[in-house]
């Protein structure tokens, strides 16, 4: 399947989104958001609403939770800053509810066997990325990790993809980006790389097929 996308060749570099693509991280994110909300004397949001708010990094997730909506322009900045610190503390508490999606490990193994370089470009704060990948047994697969606060801008800006391709010394034409949300498709298209979207992740309640990825898959192992 990968060869078909690349005109009979294999990509030299595959970059992955993290939340909603490799890891089902919403249960722990929702638990930390609810603990933050309760701390601030507000009602819990619950996992279903948090799922629709994930994708633009933790600062935006916290603001959406305070607004109780995906639109958060009305949120007080000072309160949001404080709430973000509470959230980061709560989320540091553990990731036991975070699971690896079916098909992920088989796909990572297949790429490794073929000598294809791998990296992660996520909007999740950098401090959580390596520990989480380590805890889930997949840190060793990735040569480069970019978090939401690693560079001055985050996805949908293509900067993370450019940064990784430069470090890897791999051209746009030999790079694949795999993600679950509109931000990923936009970042990949802006960078000029092929984009595969997974149907099982988080895309603010919208089917990710509407974002026009090059290919949509229901699990990563179908790409092998
Ligand atoms: O933390 C988020 O908001 C989303 O992270 P992701 O970019 O890995 O999907
Ligand atoms: Mg994602």
Q: What's a concise summary of this model?
A:
The protein is α/β, with parallel strands linked by helices. Helices cover 40% and strands 13% of the residues.
Average pLDDT reading: 97
The CATH class of the largest domain is Alpha Beta
> Approximately how much helix is present in the residues?
40-55%
CATH architecture of the largest domain: 3-Layer(aba) Sandwich
- Biggest beta sheet summary: 6 strands, parallel
As laid out across the biggest beta sheet, the strand order is 5-4-1-6-7-8
Task: Give the CATH superfamily of the largest domain.
Answer: HAD superfamily/HAD-like
Alpha-carbon distance between the two ends:
6 Å
Name the poorly predicted regions. Answer: none
**Could you say what the CATH topology of the largest domain is called?**
Rossmann fold
Secondary-structure element sequence?
A: HEEHHHHEHEHEHEHEE
Q: How does the overall form come out from the CA principal axes? A: globular
Q: How many distinct helices?
A: 9
Give the bound compounds: 2-phosphoglycolic acid, magnesium ion
Q: Report the radius of gyration as a whole number of Å.
A: 17 Å
- Supply the helix-strand structural class: alpha/beta
**How much of the sequence is in beta strands?**
5-15%
Give the count of structural domains. 2
């Amino acid at each position: 399947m990968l060869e078909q996308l690349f005109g009979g060749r294999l990509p030299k570099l595959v970059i992955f989104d993290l939340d909603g693509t490799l890891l089902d991280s919403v249960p722990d994110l929702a638990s930390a958001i609810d603990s933050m909300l309760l701390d601030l004397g507000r009602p819990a949001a619950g996992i279903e609403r948090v799922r629709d708010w994930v994708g633009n990094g933790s600062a935006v997730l916290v603001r959406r939770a305070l607004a109780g909506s995906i639109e958060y322009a009305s949120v007080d900045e000072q309160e949001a800053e404080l709430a973000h610190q509470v959230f980061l503390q709560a989320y540091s508490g553990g990731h036991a509810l975070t699971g690896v999606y079916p098909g992920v490990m088989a796909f990572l193994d297949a790429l490794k066997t073929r000598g294809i370089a791998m990296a992660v470009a996520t909007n999740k704060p950098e401090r959580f990325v390596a520990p989480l990948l380590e805890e889930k047994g997949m840190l060793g697969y990735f040569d480069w990790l970019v978090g939401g606060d690693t560079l001055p801008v985050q996805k949908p800006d293509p900067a993370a993809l450019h940064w990784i391709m430069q470090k890897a010394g791999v051209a746009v034409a030999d790079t694949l980006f795999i993600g679950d949300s509109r931000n990923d498709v936009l970042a990949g298209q802006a960078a000029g790389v092929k984009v595969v979207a997974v149907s099982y992740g988080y895309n603010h309640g919208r089917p990710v097929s509407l974002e026009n990825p090059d290919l949509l898959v229901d699990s990563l192992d179908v790409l092998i």
